[in-house]
Design brief:
Helix content is 1%, strand content 46%. It is mainly beta. A hairpin with a 7-residue loop joins β19 and β20. The longest helix has 4 residues.
Length: 556
């Protein structure tokens, strides 16, 4: 896990709402520090910082209608060339290109003065880069085209993924070390909590869990909140978080060791104050059995929480265990055990808006099929008790080898979906993003659909939420291919048959190689949504200082 250096957020308006904007104006007015591009629709500005030289605004020099450059220290010393092209006839986006002749730290801001939307590109000190973004700004039809004529349009459904609102921003305060494995939950008022794992020494093994709460407008409500009490000294723990109706956040995690023996939870109030100490969810006995998987947690529509984990290591069996909590973090009833079909993988949870839950999990091997990966789901009622038998999600396509990384989604009509990727080598037929939808009675509505078959190696699980229309908004990481060289976090909205609504869009904007974007997470409530991910480099033997996204190699 070393080298995943930065967690970023893109604050989004859900349900295809218009993005946050600056005040729109008719056209760009030329200024000493502003380039006017594309018929003066776009304004480009640069600020820079250099050790020993201070900071300032780049001085603009226009070249053509599409292109210009900036100088920082002297008019004869060109630092940055910028170009904006109209690519709407190709992919419904304007395209941004810039190339640096300097490794000075700078921030390039391009504003669409027709809509007020902004794109911000940052370059850390010591990095010399040329960048292209062919999905800049929100998509729009080319001149003269009718939006309603789009062949992908579906009546009553959002045409594209929720639109970016503002720019991606760094979630953490501390920048030393390695921050990774992000998770997020959103309260009904749109406030949200981000949690992550931090390793202060990337070449050591001392892990802690931190969180931070933001208001609905994306402004930080708290500083960093340490969640664990004892530092972990083995593998990094994976945390999950949920928000209840009162705006309280419950975070859960395991001890992070290769043979985890304990799982924990902690409740935090809307203002970031811990409500009690660390709660022990589960623990092995004196002989070290059973082992405890990383847990998951989801909010109960009634105001409490439901946690789930896998207890395994007993020969011939494993159990998926759930435990309900009230809004104050008190246990409700006894733990409930479900046959986990020999799984040792962490479960994932989703809550139905009308009450009840869905738990999904993967198995890798069983007593009879040692190399087969199966996917399972189990409905639970509002009290956390199983409803009917567990459902094998992929009986006609049981994957050989690899491991499935899953994201369950629960809909208002009682139906559900599971989205997954298989992690394995050499682009076997199982690679890609897959999904299957089920009715409220557990019967399949669709077959197994490969909804994004062409992205490169799947390394982290997708993230997904249900939209009020019944469509599904999915985010995934893409490491880049020859056909689509820009890696990052991508998203799309899919209807109940998994037809893409609109187009796939890139959520992340930073594209400096060898940085990669991993571990997408998403949360939504009402008209608010937030997406986040980890961004950085695998450090050894590379010095991350000049080339990682935050400029320090590691951070949150």
């Amino acid at each position: 896990m070393q080298g995943r250096s930065l967690i970023l957020l893109a604050f989004l308006g859900a349900l295809a709402l218009a993005p946050a904007r600056v005040a729109a104006q008719a056209v760009c007015s030329p200024a000493p520090t502003a380039l006017c591009l594309q018929g003066s629709r776009f304004q480009a500005e640069v600020t820079w910082t250099a050790p020993g030289f201070g900071s300032g605004a780049g001085q603009a020099v226009p070249l053509t209608e599409d292109t210009g450059y900036f100088w920082f220290f002297g008019s004869s010393n060109v630092e940055l060339v910028v170009k904006v092209l109209d690519g709407r006839a190709v992919n419904r986006h304007f395209w941004v290109f810039y190339g640096a002749l300097s490794d000075v730290a700078y921030t390039l801001t391009i504003t669409d003065l027709q809509t007020g939307a902004r794109e911000v590109f940052t370059n850390p000190q010591g990095r010399l880069a040329s960048v292209s973004d062919v999905s800049a700004f929100n998509p729009e039809s080319p001149p003269g085209a009718s939006r309603a004529a789009s062949p992908a349009a579906a009546p009553g459904a959002p045409l594209e993924a929720p639109l970016r609102q503002g720019t991606e921003f760094q979630a953490n305060v501390t920048t030393a070390g390695d921050q990774s494995l992000p998770a997020v939950a959103m309260a009904p008022d749109g406030s949200f909590m981000v949690v992550w794992t931090q390793n202060a020494n990337p070449f050591g093994s001392r892990f802690d869990l931190f969180g931070r709460i933001y208001a609905a407008d994306g402004s930080p409500r708290t500083g960093e909140i340490r969640l664990n009490q004892a530092t972990f000294t083995s593998n990094p723990p994976r945390a999950r978080v949920a928000a209840n109706a009162a705006g309280r956040f419950m975070t859960v995690w395991s001890d992070g060791s290769p043979n985890p023996l304990r799982a924990y939870a902690r409740l935090v109030g809307p203002g970031g104050h811990p409500l009690g100490g660390v709660i022990l969810l589960a623990a092995a006995n004196a002989t070290g059995i059973p082992l405890i998987s990383p847990p998951d947690v989801v909010a109960d529509p009634a105001g409490g929480f439901l946690a789930a984990w896998t207890a395994y290591g007993v020969p011939g069996s494993s159990a998926l265990v759930t435990q309900r909590f009230d809004a104050q973090g008190g246990r409700l009833g006894d733990p409930v055990g479900i046959n986990a079909q020999f799984s040792s993988e962490p479960p994932r949870l989703a809550a139905f808006p009308g009450g009840g839950f869905l738990v999904a999990w993967a198995t890798v091997g069983s007593l009879t099929d040692s190399f087969v990966s199966d996917l399972w789901a189990q409905r639970l009622d509002a009290s956390g008790q199983p409803v009917g038998a567990s459902i094998l999600l992929n009986p006609e396509s049981r994957q050989l080898g690899g491991k499935a990384l899953i994201a369950p989604v629960a809909y208002a009509d009682g139906g559900f979906s599971v989205i997954w990727v298989f992690t394995q080598l050499l682009f076997s037929p199982g690679d890609g993003l897959h999904a299957r939808r089920f009715a409220a009675d557990g019967k399949p509505v669709t077959g197994i659909v490969s909804i994004q078959p062409d992205f490169s190696f799947a390394t982290t699980a997708p993230a997904a939420v249900a939209l009020p229309s019944g469509d599904t908004w999915i985010l995934w990481n893409h490491l880049g291919t020859h056909e689509e060289p820009i890696g990052g976090i991508y998203s799309g909205v899919f209807d109940s048959t998994w037809a893409l609504q609109g187009e796939v869009t890139r959520v992340s904007t930073f594209s400096g190689s060898p940085n990669v974007q991993l571990d997408p997470a998403v949360a939504a409530a009402g008209v608010h949504a937030v997406a986040l991910w980890a961004s950085g480099i695998y450090t050894f033997p590379i010095d991350p200082q000049p080339i990682s996204q935050d400029g320090s190699g590691f951070g949150v």
